[in-house]
Amino acid sequence: MFQYFFNVRAGGAVLNTLSSVLVFPIDMAQSVAFAVTARELGLKVIMATSDIMESAKRSEDVVHLPYITDPKFNDAFICLLKRERITQVFTPHATIWSYFQSLSQDDGFSVKFKVCNESPIAMDKKPFDVAYEWAESCIFGLNMSAEELAAPLSPHLYANLHLAFNRIPGQSDDCKLSLLAHIARQSLQGDVIEIGSYYGRSAFALAWLAKWHNLGTVICIDPWKAESSRDQGIAAKLVNQAGEELDWDQVFLGFIASVGSFHNVNYIRNSSMLALSEYRLAASAGLIQSDEFGATPVCGSISILHIDGNHKYEEIKQDILAWVPLVKKGGWVLVDDYLWAFGDGPKQAGDELLQERAIKTAFVAGDTLCIQL
Ligand SMILES: C[S@@+](CC[C@H](N)C(=O)[O-])C[C@H]1O[C@@H](n2cnc3c(N)ncnc32)[C@H](O)[C@@H]1O
Fold first, then answer.
1. pLDDT band at residue 7 using 50, 70 and 90 as cut-offs
2. Ligand 1: distance of its center to the CA of 201 in Å?
3. Which of 44, 121, 225, 343 has CB atoms 3.0–4.6 Å from 20's, for a disulfide?
């Protein structure tokens, strides 16, 4: 999205209060997203479509233009450009983009305008290029011990993981994804526990990796409630407030949709401390059950524990004291946000864990403390 705006500037024409930007055809998802942001930035936005149904439905604010193949198109387009003082045009449609590009460079065309976005063909290709680039770096990049390292997956599979991961809202980044991909290659079989799943971004990565490396069930623990994130420490004032603005039932539904296609996922909708007894019960029954995921096996011994819940020192300390004893020898404990801009709870609790437990390996990757027991 922001790329589009950089291009508005790079295009050279300045949008002022008198000029406007045309978004055409408005009945494409990228057009709607652009129009909303452009309006939020205070730009005057003219929305147009050739779809008769669409323009009839939204007749108040959508202008009708003929199809670009219609001989009447150019005249109607010129009229609209002049009437609305349009200097920039945004279109995510590849054919229309090429047509507009040629009109904008045609000295014989009577009105001057610029196409303000990059070619849709280039835009469509970009996430795939980035995904394959990440896949290569994931296979060759992270310098971890080769001891007991399973073979990497193919670049195509890693590209698939990257594309899907980045479509889910969340705070885990590409560096975290590389880390999880490498940890999965050094992991034993066992339960994968995530404390704090939000929309399911890191949960998706864990489920995907656990599936391809045959690790075990991923159990996501999160109350999906505002109360749990209300107090993450004094320095986290801004983070505490952000949680209040969320519709947590909608976030929970988002989580279900994000990981819903996996057979190796389940969840406990509770805080990490209350979830412990539910996990123990599930382990003794050998399975965990939910309406959305059905019954999933639980072994009671943890191969990866990802701690990314409430970041207040006392909360993480509790998570560590309660859950780390269930991690098997050779298993991994990941403390997210060990390096955090909004407080030092994860660092303090992580450092204490390093001092108190016998540890095989420990390192920091990105902002995450990784400990192999
Ligand atoms: C930083 S977000 C997690 C981000 C997620 N791992 C991702 O990849 O996007 C923190 C999550 O922890 C949850 N949370 C807060 N307190 C918790 C607790 N006591 N137990 C479990 N989850 C908790 C919040 O509801 C929120 O969804």
1. very low
2. 11
3. 44
How far apart, in whole angstroms, are the C-alpha atoms of residue 151 and residue 187? Answer: 12
Q: Looking at ligand 1, which residue's alpha carbon is closest to its atom 6?
A: 197
Is residue 372 within 8 A of residue 362, CB to CB? The reply is yes
Q: Which domains does the chain have, with CATH numbers?
A: 2-118 (3.40.50.20), 171-372 (3.40.50.150)
Choose among 241, 267, 242, 264: nearest CA to 254.
Answer: 267
**CB-count exposure of residue 110 (10 Å: 0-12, 13-18, 19+):** exposed
Task: Categorize the per-residue pLDDT at 58 as very low, low, confident or very high, splitting at 50, 70 and 90.
Answer: low
pLDDT at 56: 61
Pocket around ligand 1 at a 6 A CB cut-off? 170-172, 195-198, 201-202, 221-224, 228-229, 271-272, 308-310, 315
Nearest CA to 305 among 284, 285, 281, 279? 279
Average per-residue pLDDT in the chain? 91
Q: Which atom of ligand 1 is nearest to the CA of 201?
A: 8
Which residue's CA lies nearest to atom 14 of ligand 1? 309
How much of the chain, in percent, has pLDDT values that exceed 70? 91
